[in-house]
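agent> fetching stored inputs for the pyridoxal-5'-phosphate docking request
agent> found them:
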Amino acid sequence: TTDLLAAPAATTRSEALFARARAVTPGGVNSPVRAFRSVGGTPRFIAKADGAYLTDADGTRYLDYIGSWGPMILGHNHPAVREAVAEALPLGTSYGAPSEREVLLAELVTRLTGAERVRFVSSGTEATMSALRLARGFTGRKYTVKFRGNYHGHADGLLVEAGSGLLTNADTLGAAAPSSAGVPEDYARLTLVSEYNDPAALDALMAARGDEIAAVIFEPVVGNAGVLIPTPDFLAALHRVKDRGALLIADEVMTGFRLSLRGATGLLGLEPDLTCWGKIIGGGLPVGAYGGRAEVMDFVSPQGPVYQAGTLSGNPLAMAAGLATLKTLEADPGLYARLDAYTAALAGGLRAAAQEAGVAISINHVGSMLTAFHQGVPDGSIRTYTDAARSDTAAFAHWFQGLLARGVYWAPSQFESIFVSAAHGDEELGLTLEAAQAAYASLGA
Ligand code: PLP
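agent> prediction call returned; pasting tokens
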């Protein structure tokens, strides 16, 4: 076999670090999915990353399909990004005053996306939280609508029937709505929840409550329940919310600059009032952003009455990494087609390997995002969180461990997308499919 790893690798250093981490950090991690709770085993502590590969604290190399949960579309340690940050570093790491790179990135983002104004923050959570406050300030209404299984970060009003880590940690987080302890019912009450890909449900909700609703926020392609692709009918219903005076907010934190230079919005022909970005826009450094029509964005302080601020917003190193990443994407027009082709070949290879082993899977993929749900329904037929939730998570966990033991680091949850990067090529595809065949065979046996 040409598996990346000849034999399951030692995890001694990761285990020791995890034990020390648990003594000083809740659950030993700074973000829940990293703890491997839903798949079991020791989370690998990463020492370095390069191209498509991670190297852990024990010196073992893994082929990476997480890409830091989305930002690393160019692969890790890309020279353009590394050099841009290195160039910015000696000029100081934070000013608390405006600087040229913020203007350059804002000009680039507005040109690429069609937004007229953009405001930089430091995470995707801040972007969605701020966009909702802006929508409430602009419309003078207080309710918002989100979709079951969509994840928009961890602001109080958005932790209602949420996706991502919340789908696998329900034991510790409690009941369905709100999705987290510590979110008062009074906040959760202001978030109305509808089913993704159910245009009739959204129309009915808007007919009943439309004049109280400030905004409808949605993932234009869902990554946080596993990949879910919107139907044309659902997209039409999303556009109709604007007729009721509600703002349409596309959460492109995951899909922005990933599915195309203009995100999922560009791919699907959507026209949101506001868009949220994160991940790729900062090239692996902490950046989020929200933007849209000038008429709406000019409600943000100091221009308007909606307050929003940040000590590290527009951080010079983060702006440098974002600029280098977006410029590199723009300079390589064939890149998105290559990512698509890799992901389609991966989907085809997984399908064949699972079939051969008699393992039931159903694949959803678009661009460089893919989820292989462990359930026996046709590819592409999983459209809602309720559909995704029927997956066999025990089978997924077994398969995940089979891949990891062979050096392929898949997303450690059934309800996440994997992310393909520009550093994934033929060799990586071959290694992945070989590992996947062996992992499916051990599951089917
Ligand atoms: N929105 C979406 C669609 C996301 O996928 C995420 C994170 O995964 C967020 C918002 C929150 O972003 P962050 O983790 O940077 O706060």
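agent> quick read of the result: The pocket of pyridoxal-5'-phosphate is lined by residues 69, 123-125, 128, 151-153, 164, 219, 223-224, 251, 253-254, 278, 288 (CB under 6 Å).
agent> awaiting further instructions
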